[in-house]
Each structure stands twice: as structure tokens, then as C-alpha cells.
Amino acid sequence: MAPSRAITSTLKTTLRTPTTIQRRCISAYGYEQAKVLVLSNYGEPKDVLRLHGHSISPPTGDLLTIKFLAAPINPADINQIQGVYPTKPTFTTSLSTPDPIAVGGNEGVAEVVSKGGNVKGFERGDWVIMKKQGFGTWRTHAQTTAENLVAIKNKDGLRPEQVGTVSVNPCTAYRMLKDFVDLRPGDWFIQNGANSGVGRAAIQLGKLWGYRSINIVRKRETGHEALVEDLKSLGADVVVTDEDLASKDFRDQLKTLTNGGREPIRLGLNCVGGSLVNNMAKHLSPSSPLVTYGAMSKQPVQLPMGLLIFKNISFQGFWVSRWSDAHPEEKEKCVAEILDLTRRGVFRDIPTERVEWGRGTKEGELVQAVQGTLEGYRSGKGIFVFGDT
Ligand SMILES: NC(=O)c1ccc[n+]([C@@H]2O[C@H](COP(=O)([O-])OP(=O)(O)OC[C@H]3O[C@@H](n4cnc5c(N)ncnc54)[C@H](OP(=O)(O)O)[C@@H]3O)[C@@H](O)[C@H]2O)c1
């Protein structure tokens, strides 16, 4: 039943501390007015996304009401909106619409604002992340049950942007470095899309574990040197462009870098596709895996048979959603470990383009932020940061 206007009107409460005055908005009788970025059909974000408002009643029983703090815009979210991603968003009429709608976004961090009497293991004020893909995180508030959430046990020293981006990119990099080949300190790996969220995480984790990295990025008209320096400051040993890699003298350069070829390149990571993958694979040591986890260029890979027959290079894939479903406890450990490294300043978070989402934010600003993710050469990942909602 829709709450009356009087009940849902918002009260402003002023909380005083000795040094600051904070304004906090509390909905009357615990009702929350949620704003949600939704789609009812698949298509380009600019064509299908719209902002929808609905009311959330106070939680009872097993229910928790959460308020989002930060939610990134990942490439897979766009593919999901386009209808070309294997995991489909959940279309529902439970958000007070006559026709089914789905909420965009898969990753994020939220705060528990209230809970029903049967909820165990979560308290008001706890930060939570989503257990699985498909939750729909581009929204100010949601109501759900505990099984869909993972509590962040220690949020001290962490910002919402850091916690809201921990579960996809860093965990993907972590698993790919650990699960395909037994890399030893001093071993090399080679990756493309090195300035992506996953790429940056792989550089840093690799450095931490003693591996050396050859990092491929696309040449930028402006800011290229700054990007190279940025990746080196994360721990990248070598940063080259895809054109460098394709050049005739790259093999000689690589020989010099790897001590005459005596230091093996034992793993390749690919999120781009196309002929670039062949140029990477031919530098791998015999019997090494090349792991594909993304396809940003949308170009297929054509494999020279010699790589399979004579060098026994294996081409494999990784999908963090599948891994997380199969290993929920290890996923929690991975998240906790990355957050601990972040807290200690050992793991740097990704550059972001913040999109502030407050009560007055217009639909067009939010939709444009999602659409903009499709453009390359960005300065950072788009992330919704929720303010006074
Ligand atoms: N399989 C999994 O479990 C998994 C998990 C996480 C991510 N992913 C995938 O990994 C990829 C990177 O994700 P992310 O979140 O790390 O990315 P991100 O931080 O949003 O960065 C996007 C990256 O893609 C590059 N890029 C964009 N358009 C490109 C194009 N047309 N050709 C070549 N490169 C292009 C960008 O390079 P420029 O700066 O040069 O534009 C940048 O390096 C995506 O495909 C994503 O779906 C997969």
C-alpha cells in the first residue's frame, strides 16, 4: 500500500557534535524515498535508462533497508544494459511500476539504516557489499535480506569509493595471478588494458608478491607520459603501447629486459582481444597460459596454430562471478585482504570520475555518466557517490 504524503514527508534532524553540525534526514516512521536508475528494455544506456522513485516501508522480519554510499559504473554493467551479458538483471514490478523494470549496476557499498527483528549478523551503521551480481546498485536505497549481503567487518580508515570497488576488479586480478600458474618471485607476466581497474590491481598485487609486469596500454594523444608514470608508480616494471608490441624490434627489447630471455614470461592477461593477443602470446614461455577476462576492443582472436602445437600455450578464460559463486568464503577472504592492503596504504585505489548523486540530481546527469563509460581514454572509472539522498 502506498504511504500517505504526510507519512512519507521528510523530517530534518540536526545532530550536534562539539565541532561540527551535521544534518541528517530521517524519513517519517522509517519510510525511505528511494531513487533508482532503471531500464525496462535492453538497449544503449542513453536510450533505456531512466530515474524512478519509489517508497520503501520500514523493514520487518528478515528485511534490512540499506542506503547506498558508492557504486561504480563497470564495463560489464553497460553490456548488461545492452542485453549482451550472460547475467541478466532482475526485472520486477516490486518497485511500484505496472511493467517490470530492472535496476542497473552490480557493484557497490551501502550502509544498513534499519533492520527487521529477525536479522542477525548486521547492525545499523554497518557497511555492506553485494554477495552476487545482479543486485542493482545504482539506487539510493534498497530493501533486501541478509543472504544477499556481505558485511564489511572493519571499515575503519576506508572510504566508500574503496569499499565499493573492491569485489570485482581487485579480486579478478588476484585470482588470475594466483590460479592459472604457480608464479614465483622474479617471474614476469604480460597484460593488456594495463590502466584498467583490473590491470592496475594486477600491477600492484604482482609487485607485492615479487612478480614483474610488462604492461600494454593504448597510446594517448595527451597525457600519455603521465599515464606511464602513474602505472610505474604503482609498480609496473615495463609500460609499452600496443604499437610498440607490434614493432619488429620489440623481441630484442624484451630479450634485454628479461636477461637474454632467461627470465620467463609465464602468464598473459587479456581484456582487449584482437591481434594484440597474438603479439602477447608469442612472447610467453612454453606451456604458459594466456587468460582472457574481457573483450574491450570487441575484436576476435585468431590463434596461430604453432603457438598451440610447438609452444603448448593454453588459452583460458576467467569470470569472477563464476569463481565467487563457487568460492564464497575465499571471495570474502580476498575482499578482506585487499581492504587490509588498502587501509595500510599498500594498495592504491583506482582513479575515478565521481558522479555526485544527491536529492536534486537530474536523470540526465546520471544517464550521461553511464553512457560516458563507453568512451575510451578516460581519466578514471565513473562512480556514483551518494550524498544527501
Ligand atoms: N571476467 C571477469 O571476471 C572480469 C572482471 C572485471 C572486469 N572484467 C572486464 O575487464 C575489462 C576491464 O574492466 P575494468 O573495470 O578493469 O575497466 P575500466 O577500469 O573501466 O577501464 C577500461 C579499460 O578498457 C580500455 N578500453 C576501452 N575501450 C577500449 C577499446 N575500444 N579497445 C581497447 N581497450 C579499450 C581502456 O583503455 P583506454 O584508457 O586506452 O581507453 C581501459 O584500460 C572489461 O572488459 C570488463 O568487462 C572482467
Automatic annotation (TrEMBL):
Reactions it catalyzes: a 2,3-saturated acyl-[ACP] + NADP(+) = a (2E)-enoyl-[ACP] + NADPH + H(+)
InterPro entries (alphabetical): ADH-like_C, ADH-like_N, ER, GroES-like_sf, Mito_Enoyl-ACP_Reductase, NAD(P)-bd_dom_sf
EC number: 1.3.1.104
Keyword Transit peptide: yes
Family stated for the protein in its record: Belongs to the zinc-containing alcohol dehydrogenase family. Quinone oxidoreductase subfamily.
PANTHER family: ENOYL-[ACYL-CARRIER-PROTEIN] REDUCTASE, MITOCHONDRIAL
Protein name per its UniProtKB record: enoyl-[acyl-carrier-protein] reductase
